[in-house]
């Protein structure tokens, strides 16, 4: 996952949100050793306000269960963080042909938040 900005750790998530999200990612993604979670969208910019929680999960293994995993994680995140807009996209990676342009953009501009 060389394109993800893992060095840019400043995002608009407080410590409690990070800890709860990490716990959920461990619970739902533990069987996918290649899984990486990226935050993208307005939450990666400190000068912006509001915004939904946009998450990109990159994993060859998890991509086979993209719909189910996305749905389960959205529900779990809302239960842990409260009712807010949450978008979870599961992708095998931007290098795989047929991926939407926003997946490639999220991969390039997003910030890796897990593991």
Could you outline the blueprint of secondary structure elements for this entry?
Elements: H1 15-29, E1 36-40, E2 53-58, H2 60-63, H3 66-81, E3 86-91, H4 101-109, E4 111-114
Parallel strand pairs: 2-3
Antiparallel strand pairs: 1-2, 1-4
Helix pairs in contact: 1-3
Attribute tags:
115 residues, alpha+beta, Beta Polymerase, domain 2, four-stranded mixed β-sheet, 4 helices, 4 strands
Q: If you had to describe this structure to a student in words, what would you say it looks like?
A:
The model has no long low-confidence stretch (mean pLDDT 90). It is globular and about 35 Å long. It has 115 residues and is of the alpha+beta class. Helices cover 38% and strands 18% of the residues. It is built from four helices and four strands, in the order αββααβαβ. The longest helix has 16 residues.
Mean pLDDT: 90
Order of helical and strand elements: HEEHHEHE
Strand order in the largest sheet: 3-2-1-4
Quantity of strands, as a count: 4
Contiguous low-pLDDT stretches (5 residues minimum) are none
CATH superfamily: Beta Polymerase, domain 2
Q: What is the subunit organization of this protein? A: single chain
Largest sheet: 4 strands, mixed
Number of domains: 1
Distance between the termini: 12 Å
Fraction of residues in helices? 25-40%
CATH class: Alpha Beta
Tell me what portion of residues adopts beta-strand conformation. 15-25%
Secondary structure tally, helices: 4
Structural class, judged by helices and strands? alpha+beta
Task: Using the CA coordinates, give the radius of gyration.
Answer: 13 Å
Assign the CATH topology: Beta Polymerase, domain 2
